[in-house]
Design brief:
This protein has 21 helices and no strands. It is an all-alpha fold and 423 residues long.
């Protein structure tokens, strides 16, 4: 009964346009009523679902992104990236990828990356003769690296939902994230040859030094985050808090571009984004409580085991499943709803939870680019004022590259788990 109400209830509420967090809470209320469970348990389950220390990293990383955005961080990172790769053919496309990698080490949100970088890079590419569809496509797909490279908000959610070390997940995302960046730049090169795209600027050591100096303090944020976590100095949650303080000091006292009057609005925006995620988390806690009581995760694991005993065959099935799910659900909602259900199967098949976390993250990163939901793609289209239909002819090649990388990470586990294993 729980599964039936959950499945059809979600379909109905989502089709009616209800936000997924509220839909989960309403379904939870219905389940409490139908099952005869004591209603006073509902607020307790809601609170317990969101009362998890690692989740504190989410609002803090969102605040870091807001603070650095107010300091015109994007422009500094773009100039530094241009000094390094702008000499390549199709220079602005390569700059977009490298800047996205740098920004990903700060924000942890693909939508934030598309919004922050798209407003600057898409107009520049249009002025240089890039077609609008291509400009939007590369900004959109490059922004996906924000959830693969640390610090990644979806990884934090996966770690909490699966009981996996967030630190190991962050470290595991480094090599796949770099592979994605290199693969996108190789794809850019073929587009540049096809459309005769020129270079952005000549490579000179003095220019690299000048732009590095301008971006130096911004670049210290990912060093603080990764260095502290990698060195075991602090946890990802503590790293988020330290990064928030460092961002404030850099913006207010070093760059001096953070205005005191702006701070309340920055905090409010970060709080609003956090609230949306936390409502989903709290609502999913109710669903998880009922799923556990009905032993639905164990039933799904037993059913999947009847399909095949080969874990790689099961992973192929799960990849297809998550690619479809990613078309209709945001990454946070998909992780929160599905990971507790699937973890018994993961453990039963002997799949490393860190490896599985990277598979899920890349899957959902692709989902951010595939309609109808396509949160990152639609954000980039809106900023670039370009219809979706003009973006898809270019985007399909980048998505093919992402699918190849997904297969690489799925079937060569060492790509994701080697680095955490030696730390």
């Amino acid at each position: 009964m729980v599964g039936t109400i959950l499945f059809f209830g979600l379909i109905i509420f989502v089709l009616l346009g209800m936000p997924i967090g509220f839909a989960l809470c309403v379904i939870g209320l219905i389940l409490f009523f139908v099952s005869g469970s004591p209603m006073e348990m509902m607020p307790i389950v809601l609170f317990d679902g969101a009362n998890n220390f690692p989740l504190l990293a989410i609002p803090l990383f969102m605040l870091v992104g807001e603070l650095m955005g107010a300091c015109k961080l994007s422009g500094r990172l773009i100039n530094f990236a241009a000094s390094l790769v702008g000499f390549l053919r199709g220079g602005l496309a390569h700059v977009t990828v490298l800047t996205s990698m740098l920004f990903a080490e700060i924000s942890g949100s693909a939508v934030a990356g598309a919004a922050a970088l798209g407003g600057i890079l898409i107009p520049q590419m249009k002025q240089k003769g890039y077609t609008p569809g291509f400009a939007v496509a590369i900004v959109s797909v490059a922004s996906t690296m924000a959830i693969i490279l640390p610090p990644s908000i979806p990884m934090i959610l996966y770690g909490v939902m699966s009981g996996t070390s967030v630190t190991k997940l962050f470290i595991a995302g480094i090599i796949p994230g770099i592979i994605v960046g290199v693969a996108l730049m190789i794809t850019n090169y073929f587009f540049a040859r096809k459309y005769n795209l020129g270079v952005q600027q000549a490579f000179t050591i003095p220019n690299v030094g000048k732009t590095f100096k301008e971006a130096f303090w911004a670049l210290t944020i990912p060093v603080i985050i990764l260095g502290g976590i990698w060195g075991g100095i602090f946890t990802p949650t503590e790293a988020a808090g330290i990064a928030a303080v460092a961002s404030f000091i850099i913006g207010a006292f070093i760059y001096r571009e953070l205005k005191w009057a702006e701070i309340p609005n920055l905090v409010l925006r970060a709080a609003n984004q956090t609230a949306l995620t936390m409502i989903i988390i709290a609502g999913s806690a109710i669903i998880g409580w009922f799923l556990t009581s009905e032993q639905i995760p164990q039933s799904i694991a037993a059913w999947a085991a009847t399909l095949s005993t080969n874990k790689y065959a099961i992973l192929a099935i799960l990849n297809v499943f998550f690619l479809i799910v990613g078309m209709f659900l945001h990454s946070a909602a998909a992780i929160i709803m599905l990971i507790p259900i699937l973890m018994p199967l993961v453990h039963q098949l002997g799949i490393d939870p860190v490896h599985f976390g990277l598979i899920i993250t890349i899957n959902l990163g692709i989902g951010q680019q595939t309609p109808p939901v396509a949160s990152v793609l639609l954000t980039a289209c809106s900023i670039g004022q370009t219809p979706l239909i003009k973006v898809l002819p270019y985007l399909k090649y980048y998505l093919l590259v992402m699918l190849l990388i997904l297969a690489l990470v799925t079937y060569i586990p060492s790509v994701s788990i080697w680095l955490p294993s030696i730390m």
